[in-house]
Amino acid sequence: MSALSFPSATRPPSKRRPHGRRRIAGTIGLATAAWASVAALAPGPQGAAMAADTAVSDQPWRLDRALATPDWLTLSGEHRLRYSTLVNQFRPGLSGRDEALSLRTLVRADVRVGPAWSLTAELQDSRAYLTGDQSSVNTSMVNAVEPIQAHLRYDGRDLFTAGDRLDLRFGRQTLDIGSRRLVARNRFRNAIQSFNGVSGHWRGAGGGEVRGFYFLPVRPRPSGFDAVSDNRVRFDREDFNLQFWGLWLHRPDLIAGIGVETYVYGLHERDQPGVYDSRDRQIYTPGLRLVRPPRPGAVDLDLETNLQLGHRHAGRSPLDTERLSVFAHAHHAAIGYTWATPWRPRLGLNLDIGSGDGDTGNGRHTRFDCLFGPRRTDFGPTGLYGLLGRENLISAGPRLSIQPTDRLSAHVIWRANWLEDRADAFARSGVRDPGGLSGRFAGHQVEARLRFWLLPGQVRLEAGAAVFANGRFLATAPNATGAGTPAYAYTDIRLLF
Fold it and tell me: Is residue 457 part of a domain?
């Protein structure tokens, strides 16, 4: 279970909602208008011929240069348009084909207010169309008109040792830490998670790092199915009912080019009647990571292990007062080799394990909670798909990636997947056999992605697909949909300005 879950609300039992297709013309118009409006802001012939100028210029077209903003002001942004579709739905309670036309627009302003001080504001507008009553759309895909960053930043240098740097941020912000498996700024996902609080990042001249933060995670609103499907605007909120903190240390070269990361995260939540119904989690997640980054002609590795301790309740109901002790774990191991050839091929082997919880009556909770970590890098596309996750999973297989040019890259990943606990729900599927009679083997996933920079640094095209060949468990579990082989595909265009 993730730190913030995104359940779909109860759907009307009758006809499909017409809101998606009825607005398709306006949606496509909005997508194209976003880029056209940016071009129109540029004065004179530069705006009229933006694409041509970008193609022949050494630098991508940027909004602040077009507007000739002063040195103390930087404006930037991006717009992404994605179409995705899923056939043979795997989620219990849903059926048929799912599709979405997703739009995400980000606009950011950075204002320098002194030699070491600056202000940052970033607005997100994430929407989804074409969804119907049997869609899995939720707040991970939709968050319309929301400020995801609004903070004061201090950037100090040579404070403690020669050549060091200290970055402090106060206010609403996003962040990436370490492997990005437990806390990160979402990239593939349509809506970006943000936090309100304070963070610090110290970097020494030798490459050592220390990071710490104390946050109130921002909870997206609205969360009801109808409101999300209609892309309704309501500002998110954060409060002391959900708190998240962490301390992370990094040494870049422990031995033979291998770096080490050690960290601990804490998550604390409590119920507030009428405001926030929670599982009252009080959990601590220590971790250790050894990493040697990929480079041509060398072996790389990534080994990460986590424990999870504390206590929590089983459900969100205020009437659930039974305290369960938490002991869960998750592990990632990857080793690979990159050939020093023009296409830079890399072949790797990956293994992931996340504990499950099949015994609900023993006073313990052993299903791993992935906190605020994205899944796309390790487990394939999320959004309408997102079948795999770091919970109740044993997953292994090879990964092949290539980069023929600086503009073109691709990868193919195959994973064989089992349940860590045969009586718990498999990963993020929602499929469960409480009796454990459907076996452990869930099936095979094959996933591929292709990226191409149409205009370097300006316009990027991406396409991908994932297919999950059901094993015995997903074919025979009591609440399995029986729909057949889930297959997902998407294509998107990302415009930077």
Answer: yes
